[in-house]
């Protein structure tokens, strides 16, 4: 991976991690109702789930690139189209403010909440399938590149979720619909741009 691709991937993952979602709701709720430490453990579960999906996706893509040859371009087209579709849906979506409910829970429960929320998203692999080829050469990926991506995930995704946890713990954060919609628009535009870039890259290859 080049310095530019690392910076681009890091920035994109920060923005996407910041979009109000089920995982953000879980982190904020746990932190606001049970304390910051529960928000931290929920975040840890989310990050572990993301890393599992990323490792499966990266090495699965490497296998596909090596065995499918030219047909791998088709996967790039499909991945790009999928990202554009997700971006349009996110752009056009409307959201309601997050609400929290009081409940007593354990640290293990908070961790499992974050982990299972992430692993329960069956579209995550497809998302990464379309996302990563825009930032790295899948056919020539190394263990070092994989380590960089995992580190980016820990810092970007984990860092953003911890910010939500801290704010929710201190101020019982309530995100307005207008703020949520603006963030959805920004994230949607990023996904559309990445999708278009991926399709263009496949077309020119």
Automatic annotation (TrEMBL):
> Where does this protein reside within or beyond the cell?
Cell membrane
Q: How does it sit in the membrane?
A: Multi-pass membrane protein
Q: What is its main location?
A: membrane
InterPro entries, from UniProt? LeuE-type
**Gene Ontology cellular component annotations, sorted alphabetically:** plasma membrane
Recorded protein name is LysE family translocator
**PANTHER family to which the protein is assigned, alphabetical:** ARGININE EXPORTER PROTEIN ARGO (PTHR30086), ARGININE EXPORTER PROTEIN ARGO-RELATED (PTHR30086:SF20)
UniProt keywords (A-Z) are: Cell membrane, Membrane, Transmembrane, Transmembrane helix
Q: Where do transmembrane segments lie in this chain?
A: 6-27, 39-61, 67-86, 107-129, 141-164, 185-204
Molecular function in Gene Ontology: amino acid transmembrane transporter activity
């Amino acid at each position: 991976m080049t310095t530019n691709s690392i910076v681009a991937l890091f920035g994109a993952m920060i923005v996407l991690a910041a979009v109000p979602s089920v995982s953000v709701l879980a982190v904020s709720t746990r932190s606001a109702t049970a304390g910051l430490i529960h928000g931290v453990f929920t975040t840890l579960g989310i990050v572990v789930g993301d890393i599992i999906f990323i490792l499966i996706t990266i090495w699965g893509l490497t296998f596909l690139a090596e065995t499918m040859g030219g047909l791998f371009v088709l996967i790039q087209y499909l991945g790009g189209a999928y990202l554009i579709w997700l971006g349009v849906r996110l752009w056009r979506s409307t959201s309601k403010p997050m609400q929290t409910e009081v409940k007593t829970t354990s640290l293990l429960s908070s961790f499992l909440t974050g982990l299972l929320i992430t692993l329960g998203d069956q579209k995550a692999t497809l998302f990464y399938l379309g996302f990563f080829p825009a930032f790295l050469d899948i056919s020539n990926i190394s263990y070092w590149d994989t380590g960089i991506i995992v580190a980016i995930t820990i810092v970007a995704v984990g860092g953003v979720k911890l910010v939500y946890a801290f704010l929710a713990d201190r101020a019982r954060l309530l995100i307005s619909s207008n703020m949520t919609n603006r963030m959805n628009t920004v994230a949607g535009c990023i996904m559309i741009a990445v999708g278009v870039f991926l399709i263009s890259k496949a077309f020119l290859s």
